[in-house]
Design brief:
Number of helices: 5
Low-confidence stretches: 1-5, 26-31
Radius of gyration: 54 Å
Largest sheet: 5 strands, mixed
Order of helices and strands: EEHHEHEEEEEHEEHE
Number of strands: 11
Helix content: 40-55%
Distance between the termini: 129 Å
Mean pLDDT: 77
């Protein structure tokens, strides 16, 4: 910058002007400063974009992990339900077979135990853990029939006496049955079997008195006292 002074009488005139031979620099014109500011703004913008991209990538990864976790949890829940319903169906099937299929019942119960009438008269322990004693009263009924009764002593589960398919006596909860009479000929055809309730309350043929016909005489009363099961 150059100041020129010219004399005009008693006045001094001043004129500003550019000096000759001094080129204006880019800095003087404001170019370089503006360029650096523009570069800094662009750098800041790029940094902000990179940070946003990183945040978005982390959010995407977090969402993916959450989705995979939820998907796995749902699969495990469905698998547990599947196993539960399969086990429930299997249990119901077994219960149905045990209660309604005679062949399956026999397989679960096993063969009835063969016992003698003399063992009952002694009141000895029986193979399934029971103690049953038989008392005899002579000349109780007609000579063509036999009278039978059942008495529970200290046991509560159901017990019964049958001759083949004929139910003679049954009792439960320490009760005594009424006296039942049966024709001797019918008793010879069916024999005498002792029944009791076991698991699930099902009635099982437990004992078969092998010599009942030869030992039990017409006209007598035979009382079976069941004192242990």
């Amino acid at each position: 910058m150059v100041m020129l002074v010219t004399a005009t009488g008693d006045k001094v005139a001043y004129r500003l002007g550019r000096s000759q031979g001094r080129p204006r620099t880019q800095t003087a014109r404001g170019g370089a400063i503006r360029g650096r500011r523009h570069d800094r703004r662009r750098s800041d913008t790029d940094a902000d974009g990179a940070a946003d991209a990183m945040i978005e990538a982390k959010a995407t990864q977090s969402n993916l992990e959450e989705v995979l976790y939820m998907h796995g949890h749902v699969m495990i829940t469905h698998f547990k339900k599947y196993v539960f319903y399969k086990l429930l169906l299997l249990t119901l099937s077994i219960i149905f077979l045990v209660f309604y299929e005679p062949g399956i019942q026999d397989a679960f119960a096993g063969s009835s135990h063969k016992i003698s009438f003399s063992t009952l008269k002694k009141g000895s322990a029986l193979p399934d853990g029971d103690v049953i004693r038989v008392d005899v009263a002579q000349n109780y009924t007609s000579d063509s029939k036999i009278a039978i009764s059942l008495q529970l002593s200290g046991v509560t589960w159901w017990k019964g006496i049958q001759s083949g398919n004929i139910v003679l006596c049954q009792a439960q909860d320490s009760q005594s049955s009424t006296v039942t009479t049966i024709k001797y000929e019918d008793l010879k055809a069916g024999g005498v079997q002792l029944w009791k309730a076991k698991g699930l309350g099902r009635h099982w043929d437990i004992y078969d008195i092998t010599d009942a016909i030869s030992q039990m005489k017409p006209g007598n009363l035979y009382t079976f006292v069941w004192s242990k099961d």
